[in-house]
């Protein structure tokens, strides 16, 4: 086409596109200028973990203390069952990218709504001029779309347009990386919430939300891809007051120092709470996807039992004593002994212990304490659990 001396007829959509491009490149501030802070690779200031399933999606950010979830509409849910050639077909890659996109949105909103006390606690030296966000996903395709800001899929191109618009409206340096599915357990659990329940009763139950609000993605801003799936939803976003390690009994400083010594010095302050949670859990990690699925089902069964028994005043036990938590575990064990497990049948003692382990290891991620034991150094379970186990 270049220097061909040919005449072309431009229709109205083409003129509109050219006018948009002209207005954009001639706008102020100049779109041709990019701050160095958004170009040079830097260590992330915070990271979030997200995932999507055929039920919904969700993510959480430990450093900025927020999480969100959303359930797909019936149109999206039915789109999974259609043939790829059908115009209403839904691919999981697109939903994974939507969750990644919303993580960036939530990060921007969170930074803009922090109170002064929260700013001083999270950023003692002040919020960085160009903060770096790292999104972790177990979907490599959505990571590729984020890093390149382009996609060959026609469905994904509309989503990338939304993502590019978000980048133009914020000073957050975005990046993403892959995390193994077996290590993305919490985000995977969130994406499979029971979305028929009110938001406040879904995982993770928030007893002391710092703030909560709803916002709508405007329809005019969304692409035809999103119109097809009626992706116009209220997104509930609640900020969590994650517990401080100083609120809990001390653990072995030697073990903590030894593990932290394996990591770079600049990462140790952010890594310490996770190491403490790991040491307090005093248990190995689940390895296979089947084991992870079984543990997830057992945890959901436990939380369902808590709701039915009206033990839902502190579901994650973040504000409970060790005695209350251990007694609750023991009562749940008694409940299981009556044949009220997932399959409505009696359990062997070892299986019952695995139920309790699945719950305790999950709660320890947030409470930073293994409530099966009176103190972190104990090799035996607490007296209430021990009595139930011996009786069985």
Q: How is this fold's topology laid out?
A:
Layout: H1 12-25, E1 46-52, E2 56-61, E3 66-71, H2 74-79, H3 92-113, H4 116-122, E4 132-137, H5 140-148, H6 154-168, E5 173-178, H7 185-191, E6 212-216, H8 224-228, E7 234-239, H9 253-260, H10 268-281, H11 289-308, H12 322-337, H13 349-367, H14 383-391
Parallel strand pairs: 1-4, 4-5
Antiparallel strand pairs: 1-2, 2-3, 3-7, 6-7
Helix pairs in contact: 3-5, 3-6, 9-10, 10-13, 11-13, 12-13, 12-14
How would you summarize this macromolecular structure in one to three sentences?
The protein has 14 helices and seven strands.
Structure description:
The chain has 392 residues and is α/β, with parallel strands linked by helices. The chain has two domains: 36-239; 245-391, no CATH class. It is 44% helix and 11% strand. It contains 14 helices and seven strands. The protein has helices spanning 12-25, 74-79, 92-113, 116-122, 140-148, 154-168, 185-191, 224-228, 253-260, 268-281, 289-308, 322-337, 349-367, 383-391; strands at residues 46-52, 56-61, 66-71, 132-137, 173-178, 212-216, 234-239. It has a seven-stranded mixed sheet with strand order 5-4-1-2-3-7-6. Strand 1 and strand 2 form a beta hairpin. Helix 12 (322-337) packs antiparallel against helix 13 (349-367). It is globular, with a radius of gyration of 24 Å. Mean pLDDT is 76; it is low at 204-251 and 282-286.
């Amino acid at each position: 086409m270049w220097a061909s001396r040919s005449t072309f007829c431009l229709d109205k959509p083409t003129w509109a596109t050219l006018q948009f491009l002209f207005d954009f490149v001639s706008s102020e501030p100049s779109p041709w200028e990019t701050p160095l802070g958004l170009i040079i690779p830097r260590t992330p200031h915070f990271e979030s973990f997200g995932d999507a399933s055929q039920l919904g999606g969700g993510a959480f950010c430990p450093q900025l203390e927020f999480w969100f979830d959303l359930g797909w509409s019936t149109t999206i849910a039915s789109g999974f069952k259609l043939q790829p050639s059908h115009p209403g077909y839904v691919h999981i890659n697109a939903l994974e990218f939507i969750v990644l996109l919303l993580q960036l949105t939530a990060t921007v909103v969170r930074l803009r709504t922090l109170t002064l006390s929260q700013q001083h606690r999270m950023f003692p030296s002040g919020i960085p001029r160009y903060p770096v966000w790292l999104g972790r996903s177990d979907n490599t395709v959505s990571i590729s779309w984020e890093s390149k800001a382009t996609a060959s899929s026609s469905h994904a191109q509309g989503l990338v347009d939304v993502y590019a618009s978000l980048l133009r409206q914020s000073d957050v340096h975005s990046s993403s990386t892959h995390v193994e599915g077996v290590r993305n357990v919490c985000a995977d659990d969130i994406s499979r919430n029971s979305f028929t329940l009110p938001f406040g009763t879904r995982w993770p139950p928030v007893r002391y939300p710092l703030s909560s609000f709803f916002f709508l993605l405007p329809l005019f801003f969304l692409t035809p891809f999103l119109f097809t799936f009626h992706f116009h939803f209220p997104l509930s976003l609640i900020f969590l007051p994650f517990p401080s390690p100083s609120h809990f009994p001390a653990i072995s400083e030697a073990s903590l120092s030894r593990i932290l010594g394996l990591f770079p010095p600049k990462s140790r302050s952010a890594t310490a709470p996770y190491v403490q949670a790991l040491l307090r859990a005093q248990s190995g990690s689940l390895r296979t996807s089947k084991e992870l699925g079984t543990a997830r089902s057992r945890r959901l069964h436990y939380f369902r039992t808590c709701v039915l028994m009206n033990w839902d005043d502190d579901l994650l036990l973040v504000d409970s004593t060790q005695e209350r938590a251990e007694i609750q575990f023991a009562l749940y064990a008694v409940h299981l002994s009556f044949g009220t497990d997932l399959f409505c049948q009696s359990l062997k003692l070892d299986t019952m212990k695995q139920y309790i382990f699945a719950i305790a290891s999950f709660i320890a991620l947030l409470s930073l304490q293994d409530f099966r034991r009176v103190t972190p150094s104990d090799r035996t379970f607490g007296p209430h659990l021990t009595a139930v186990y011996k009786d069985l």
